Structure formats: structure tokens, C-alpha cells
Amino acid sequence: MKITWLAHSCFELVGSLNVLIDPYIQNNPLAPRGIDDFNPDVIAVTHGHANHLGNAGDIARRSGCLVISTPEISRYLKGLGARAEGMNIGGSFRAGKSVFYMTYAMHSSGIIESDHLLYGGEAAGFVINDGVRVYHAGDTGLFYDMRLIGELYRPEVALLPVGDRFTMGPREAAMAVSWIRPDIAIPMHYNTKSSISQDPADFQALVESLCDTEVIVMDVGETIEL
Ligand code: NI
After folding, report:
1. What's the DSSP call for residue 194?
2. pTM of the model
3. Distance from residue 109's CA to the centre of ligand 1 (Å)
């Protein structure tokens, strides 16, 4: 599997499928590619905040790809003309050879449309098994059932927010790693704006003090192959 970080919480996973997660592209000051540069098979959306739902509707409408998210966000995207399937926390969805497990996230999920705030259901995360098991935590605070996610799905890679203020900071995220015990942890959701400014080396040092998981600090646009 190839994993590319597209800044913030947006990742492209290329295995048997091309999967785009939380496509915050157009308004993302760090996005290395434009919305027309993607042709995913599946877009997975963790929650309704604009920096996660992002351009899911635009990309899905143009490319005809499938969007997987909560029932509320799927319904919203269908209203925009996208092809979308709903699922909920604790369940799984199969697409080709891949399995998407939706996990709990301790966060909110309102959708802002014009000046209106729409109910977006619950925030979520995903474990995606497409040959390699990747846990994308979405936006979340630290919660103890991350141990359960580690035990149940045994993710080899964990993508975890470290930006603080709206999600876990480095200390909480390092503890999450020690509970999930992936082979590789990759920090996300930091340095996109000044309010979530972090030095990822702090997260890396904290993880190293707690467990033997390898931290890979990716550059924006960088691809790693596992
Ligand atoms: Ni959020």
C-alpha cells in the first residue's frame, strides 16, 4: 500500500483501491494538489467539519466515486448529487477487496452550509483494511477504547491528530499510540493554521518514551510504501 499525506487529515491510500480520506483541498493552504487531481474509488469522510468533509461532494460528483460516511453526512452528500453510502460506528462496509470499519471518535460533527449549521450526526474514525490495516482516527480526544480498537482491528498504521485545541495534542496522542500499538504512527491535523501549531518531534519523542512504535513524520505530499 502507498500512503500519501495531503496535509491536515487528508490521506490517499493506494492498494487494491484508491481511497481518499477527509479531502480538505480547496480551502487548505497547504494542499499540494487541486480537486481535479484526484480520481479515487472511494472517499471516506470522518465527520462534517469543513476541514474534513471538504471537497468530498465536488470530487465525488465529478469522478462518480463512492463516498462512505455516517448516515447523516451520506444523506447530505446524496443531496449534493454524490454517490454515497451510510454506515455507523461499530459496523463494517466492504468495497471490492477492502473493508472499512467505522470507529468511535470523541468529537462533534456539525456541517456549516452558508450561514446555517446542519446536524451532522456523530464524528467517527475508520480502520481500513486493504492489505495493510490503517487506522485514521478522524478528529478526536483521547478515549480509553482506543485500546479496544488496537485489540480488535490490530492496525499496522495509525494516523492520529496531534494539533491540540480541537483534538488530542502530542501528549494525548502519544498515549493513544501506547494503547493502540501500531507498527507505525503518523501525526496529522497540525500546522495547517496557527491555532494547531505543533513540532511533531515532540510527539515522536513522547511515543519513543512509551513504546516501540515507529513514528514517521511525513512531509506534505510525501508518499510512503508499506
Ligand atoms: Ni473536527
Report:
1. G
2. 0.98
3. 6
**Chain centre to alpha carbon of residue 103:** 11
Question: Distance from the CA of 99 to the center of ligand 1, in angstroms?
Answer: 24
CA 53–ligand 1 middle distance (angstroms): 9
Q: What percent of the chain has pLDDT over 90?
A: 99
Mean of pLDDT values over 70-99: 98
How far is residue 201's CA from residue 3's CA, in Å, rounded to a whole number? Answer: 20
How far is the centre of ligand 1, averaged over its atoms, from the C-alpha of 52 (Å)? 7
Provide the pLDDT confidence category of residue 175 given band limits of 50, 70 and 90.
very high
Total Cβ atoms within 10 A of residue 32: 16
CATH code for the part of the protein at 2-225: 3.60.15.10
DSSP label at residue 208: H
- The pLDDT tens digits for 123-168 are 999 999 999 999 999 999 999 999 999 999 999 999 999 999 999 9
Where are any strands of DSSP class E within the chain?
2-5, 11-14, 18-21, 42-44, 66-69, 83-86, 92-95, 98-104, 111-113, 116-118, 124-129, 133-136, 157-161, 184-188, 214-215, 223-225
Collapsed DSSP state (helix, strand, coil) of residue 210: helix
Task: Cell 485545541: give the residue.
Answer: 165
Phi-psi bin for 46: left (phi > 0), alpha (psi -120 to 50), beta?
Answer: alpha
Q: Are 32 and 86 in contact (CB under 8 A)?
A: no
